Amino acid sequence: MNKIADIPAIDISPLFGEDREAKRRVALEINTACRGLGFFYAAGHKIDVRQLQQEVNAFHSTMTDEEKFRIAIHAYNKANPHVRNGYYMAIRGKKAVESFCYLNPSFTDEHSMIRAGAPLHEVNWWPDESSHPNFRAYCEQYYKDVLELSRVLLRGFALSLGKNEDYFDRDVLLDDTLSAVSLIRYPYLEDYPPQKLAPDGTKLGFDDHIDASIITALFQTPVPNLQVVTPDGWLDLPVSADNFLINCGSYMAHLTNNYYPSPVHRVKWVNAERLSLPFFVHAGYNTVLEPFHPDSKLGGSGNQSIAYGEFLQHALKALIEKNGQT
Q: Would residue 82 show up in a list of annotated catalytic residues for this protein?
């Protein structure tokens, strides 16, 4: 039986307020967590996670196979040009996990980046409104709410890195963020498809990886399944029925010259009906931030600046090449 990692729960509510000293205390806790195992739970986040689960469970329980295929991404439905937004289908006997990913609701046909045909930008396709009333409206509002939560979190990250509180504000905006929501369902099945085995013999739902994001904010059903690699091997992450699990993605590692590394983690196979609902926080396609190191005493050439969209394209391609299409 694996040991459970010591992952702190941080009350981030001061980040919504004006008490500068309280914000600095939160920032110090974020710094400790990110310099440690790389994960923390965000308490005091102000999002109704009970409604979130109800809406997503209702969506998954009412989607038909025909509806799933109609909005399936190009990897499953060649008639659909979308590679990000859409349904990621289960494949009987091979793959049980399924999900729906949607992007920025600001990406309409009239958005400048859509009109320019910019990579990674897609106008969301939704399930039929008559079969799923209010689902689109709920999802679009949730996107805005969790984006605002992420912007608040990034203010804490900025302070923890010795930057001004608004360091990320102009680069993670509703107008152009590439952030994505994934509504992932892991089913319970009597006849579950074969699982991949890790070198240590652990059955896996998803192999070891780092997230392609600035940060990731994950809410999930409290069923133990995630593990993080440590100098002492793989440790189970504790679960929470109330809080978002936060970690740095590969762009934060690049930006900070690995001062805040992106933790390597994996999903254990668990035959249980559960949800995994990550929000992958991204900047705009043309955003360029200059990499830095918070500890100025450390030298070295450091990472080179790169446009966020180019960085993300490479990171997503590498993730699919390593672990396959989800």
A: no
209 noted as active-site residue: yes
Task: Please say if 211 is a catalytic residue.
Answer: yes
Buried/exposed code over 173-208 (b: 16+ C-beta within 10 A; e: otherwise): beebbbbbbbbbbbeeeeeeeeeeebeeeeebbbeb
Residue length of the chain: 326
Q: Which of 206, 244, 279, 280 is catalytic?
A: 206
Which of the following is catalytic: 132, 265, 282, 293?
265
The amino acid at residue 300 is G
Q: Is the pLDDT of residue 192 over 60?
A: yes
Residue range 293-322, pLDDT digits in tens: 888 655 556 899 999 999 999 999 998 888
Q: What is the CATH number of domain 9-323?
A: 2.60.120.330
Q: Which of 11, 69, 74, 209 is catalytic?
A: 209
The dihedral sign for the CA sequence 218, 222, 227, 231: positive
Confidence of residue 324 (pLDDT cuts 50, 70, 90): confident
In this prediction, residue 323 carries a pLDDT of: 75
From the number of C-beta atoms within 10 Å of its C-beta (0-12, 13-18, 19+), residue 156 rates as buried
Query: Exposed, middle or buried by CB within 10 Å (0-12, 13-18, 19+), for 217?
Result: buried
- In the residue annotation, 254 being an active-site residue is answered as no
pLDDT of residue 1: 59
Mean pLDDT, to the nearest integer, of 242-248?
98
